[in-house]
Hints:
By secondary structure, this protein is of the alpha+beta class. Helix content is 40%, strand content 15%. The chain has a domain at 3-25 and 62-129. It has helices at 3-10, 13-24, 34-38, 68-83, 95-99, 110-116; strands at 26-28, 51-54, 57-61, 120-123, 126-129. The strands form 2 sheets. A 3-stranded antiparallel beta sheet has the order 1-3-2. A two-stranded antiparallel ribbon has the order 4-5. The termini are far apart. Residues 31, 33, 35-36, 50 line the site of zinc ion (ZN).
Amino acid sequence: MDLFEDDKRLFLRPVLAFAECLMAAFADGPCGCIRCKDGDGSQSGYAYLHTVEIAGRVLNRRFAISTYSDVRGALAKAWESFYKTVLPEGGRADMNAIAAFVQGPAARRIEVALYAAGVVADVDGVPHFVSGEV
Ligand SMILES: [Zn+2]
C-alpha cells in the first residue's frame, strides 16, 4: 500500500472518533471526587485509577464516557475501518497495529486508556484483548 492510501485511512471518521474517545477519556488535573479528596490523592486499594499521569501531565479519568464498551466500541469501529477486518475478540493485542491509526496527542493515551477501561490486560506480561463478558 502506498503512503497516500495510508494517509486517507487516517482520516476515516471512525478512526478520528477513536482518537477523540481517547482524548475525552481524561480531563486535566487530578481527580476531585470525595474518595480521592478524603484519601489525599492516595489511590491504594483502587480497582481503577482515578488519576493518571500521561507524558508528564496529571489527568483524571472521566469514567462516565470511558467504560469498557465506550472504548472497546470506538476501537472496534476504528480498527474495522482502517484494516477492513474485525477487531479480535481475544488473544494477543497488537499495540503497534492500534498505534498505527492514532495520530497526535491521542497516541500517548492509547495504552493508559485501553488498560484503564479493561479493553486490554496483560497475560504473562503481554497485552491481550479482554473479551466482552465483563
Ligand atoms: Zn477520585
